[in-house]
Amino acid sequence: MTTMSDPGAQACRLEGLPSDVGGLTKILQGLLIHEHMPDFYGVTLSDRQRGEPHVRGVEQILERIAAHDPRPIQEVRPPGERFACCCRHYTLMLAAMLRTEGIAARARCGFGTYFVKDMFIDHWVAEYWNEPERRWVMVDAQIDPRQRETFAIDFDTLDVPRTKFLVAGDAWKLCRDGKANPQAFGVLDMFGLWFIASNVIRDVAALNNHEMLPWDVWGGMSRIDAEIDLDFIDRLAGLSRAPDADSQALRSAYDDSRVAVPATVFNAVLGRPETVS
Question: Is residue 264 helix, strand or coil?
Fold first, then answer.
């Protein structure tokens, strides 16, 4: 197990779960609620829930869930009682569940094409190793039937086409090759090449088992395009686009202080430095 995905003292809560990916995603969809989508379910987040998206580790997530509702996580919670989070939490939790089952899994940071027409929205999904098919399969655990209808999603979210979700390295290459507009990549009021570069760093960190919050900022990240080390991000993007081609180089890339997650990161949503536990 790795730091963020390690359930630690809460490991017992991941026992007895189904081993199929579809079953695991259904559990997560009955356990979590996206912080920006409570209106989809006719609820308003409580004060308790508003702080939950900033919880980083699986052990702490499970601890918070159990403190509020000690029932097994397989039991569906009403939308207003679920743990409030973002796409990264669905992804991290699915990776933890799969790893508990002995299935190789990893989190990927990038951009979804299926939320806003002609836009590439900041998003996270999971990949797991499908041994019979000998390939990594991409899964969006967040998309439940309500979201599928709202976003008019017409593909299998348990096997997301790589044209529908772009890992950050692919997004970077598209823009560097002049095949896409960097201003179409981001979220809320934050778009541009700088955002893609930051997600490349987040993706490389995640591939090295440091799955940070989407708004955690550290190292080589900057909001100014002119400050981007283009050659450096080109290299990171190349490694992360094909992470199994040279695993040693990918691990070595994490040794760079511009990529390695330090003891303290900047939470850009809360506007403050935070210790990474």
Answer: strand
Confirm whether 1 is domain-assigned. no
Q: Which residues of the chain have pLDDT under 70?
A: 1-2
The residue range of the domain holding 67 is 8-275
User: How far apart (Å, rounded) are the C-alpha atoms in residues 151 and 157?
Assistant: 12
Interaxial angle between packed helices 193-207 and 230-241, expressed in degrees from 0 to 180 and rounded to the nearest 10: 50
Q: What is the pLDDT of residue 1?
A: 38
Based on the structure, what is the number of domains in the chain? 1
pTM given for the model: 0.97
In the numeric block, the tokens 């909001």 are attached to 223
Residue 177 lies in a domain: yes
pLDDT on residue 2: 53
Q: Point out which residues pair with 128 in neighbouring strands.
A: 105, 137
The span from the CA of 93 to the CA of 241, in Å, is: 23
